[in-house]
Design a protein that fits this description.
Number of domains: 3
Structural class: alpha+beta
Low-confidence stretches: 70-74, 141-146, 478-485
Largest sheet: 8 strands, mixed
Helix content: 25-40%
């Protein structure tokens, strides 16, 4: 009897945080995953073909495609890890691999097959496979310009917002903050405004879900960006990321391949997100050209079309039956908890546990996961399902999140510990935790479902254990906003 499938969202889940819309699955980075996975497997000498499953807006990798697994003893990684590293570094640094910033291109052409886009995604998958082959402990931390630049720029903005007229504008709250900053004639405020515009130009493709073409980005909505700055401005100077970063290797990775492949991973991930941003802009341009109210198609419907349905709409004016109901169906997917791992066939989304349906842990109960960053941290929990909810986070909180995506990295200087449903040793957020000395536990499966916002916990990042030490209580955000756990 054939071995049953072993599906996991762990390897891809740090980049692809579903549920994705139909258009993102069929036209965004997720649509290129099959071709990129085949190319990556061929380069490391494994058979290509199959291996991915899409259910309920999420994507799983059948880990059988990695048999014989690229993983090996941590002190003996497979030969391809060293052999392919120099070429991968060269390819990911090639300017020709980056997306064309010219948005005058016909929008529909942005969604066609693109060899450079697939290559960027192939390098991302290769890097993830290489890091997995090195195993936990191959590097305590590492620093790459692609990640650190944005974190340091945001920190500098936070410092600028600690006093004077800039602080006064932030003290009035996030509502209308962008307009107040833009309208100010104050020299310091104008300097911050220019700095924010520079961040948007350089990092506008960042956002809560880079692979979702219907999701917001810093270029389209600066509220999340300003909320991050508002959080960072409440921290002491000693919390600066640049002063806390630790880079250290251990005997498990004597050649330093962990650093090389992390650099490839981070640069490739930035490139894939930039490609998605060009597609996001193209989709918005198509939406701008739709007929007005009273027609059969609305702006909010576009993300729920497949790429072929969008082609039919643009060429023949064909609107699929029941399109207006797809948005409801997609929003309903967010009320279910997609399993991280599945042995056998993946059940339909309606059979997944409901969000809010898991019993909450009581005081004294433990939640186990995998250690990802050593140390101990404690404090009140804040459960966030998206980085767009950053305004709910207070300095010193223990942050509980679904995945280890790099979108959480700018928040990590503010937290006492990080707890992740999915994630692994090499998750971008886990790597940053090790750099900053923030305790981290990953692979808990259900932290965001069983921990209560406002409840108090202790996190042991060395053992991978979270202990509930107290129930929810009332407390104040440093800005003065009352929070009720």
């Amino acid at each position: 009897m054939p071995e049953r499938p072993r599906y996991s969202r762990t390897l891809l889940g740090d980049h692809l945080t579903g549920p994705l819309t139909a258009f993102s699955l069929s036209a965004g980075p997720a649509a290129d995953l099959d071709a990129a996975l085949d190319a990556a497997l061929e380069r490391i000498g494994l058979p290509a073909g199959g291996g991915l499953a899409r259910v309920g807006g999420h994507v799983w990798l059948d880990e059988r495609v990695l048999d014989p697994s690229p993983s090996s003893a941590a002190d003996h990684p497979p030969p391809w890890v060293a052999e392919l590293a120099p070429d991968a570094q060269r390819r990911v640094a090639d300017p020709g691999l980056a997306p064309d910033p010219d948005h005058s291109v016909e929008p529909a052409a942005t969604f066609q097959h693109d060899h450079a886009r697939v290559e960027a995604l192939t390098l991302l998958i290769l890097a993830e496979l290489a890091l997995e082959s090195l195993g936990p402990g191959a590097a305590v931390g590492t620093t790459t310009a692609s990640r650190d630049d944005v974190e340091d720029v945001l920190w500098a903005l936070g410092r600028a917002a600690t006093a004077g007229q800039v602080a006064a504008l932030f003290d009035q709250g996030l509502g209308g903050l962008a307009d107040r900053i833009a309208a100010s004639r104050s020299g310091p405020v104008r300097g911050v405004h220019q700095a924010i515009e520079t961040v948007v130009v350089s990092y506008g493709h960042h956002g809560p879900n880079p692979w979702e073409l219907a999701a917001g980005s810093w270029a389209g909505n600066s509220l999340e960006l300003l909320a991050i700055v508002d959080l960072l401005r409440d921290l002491p100077d000693s919390s600066a990321p640049a002063g806390r970063r630790r880079i250290a290797s251990v005997p498990a990775d004597p050649a330093g391949w962990g650093h090389v492949w992390l650099d490839v991973r981070d640069r490739a991930a930035e490139m894939v997100a930039a490609y998605a941003q060009t597609q996001r802009i193209a989709l918005a341009r198509i939406a701008d050209g739709l007929p007005g109210p009273g027609t059969d198609i609305h702006r909010a419907d576009l993300p729920h079309l497949t790429r072929h349905e969008l082609d039919a709409l643009m060429t023949c004016g064909v609107v699929p039956d029941g399109l207006s109901l797809r948005g409801y169906d997609h929003r309903a997917l967010s009320t279910f908890r997609a399993p991280v791992t599945v042995v056998g066939e993946i059940p339909a989304a309606v059979r997944w546990p409901r969000e809010g349906g898991l019993p909450r842990l009581a005081v004294g109960e433990l939640l186990s996961g995998a250690p990802a960053a050593p140390g101990a941290g404690n404090g009140p929990v804040t459960v966030l399902r998206s980085p767009s909810e950053v305004a709910a986070l207070s300095p010193g909180d223990v942050l509980a999140v679904p995945t280890g995506t790099s979108a959480w990295n700018p928040l990590l200087p503010a937290v006492s510990a990080l707890v992740v449903d999915a994630g692994r040793w090499w998750s971008p957020a886990a790597v940053t935790c090790r750099e900053l000395g923030v305790p981290c536990v990953v692979a808990t499966e259900e932290a965001t479902g069983v921990l209560t916002t406002g409840g108090h916990v202790e996190v042991d990042g060395s053992k991978g254990v979270v202990t509930v030490t107290g129930g929810p209580g009332r407390r104040h955000h440093p800005s003065g906003r009352l929070r009720v756990g």
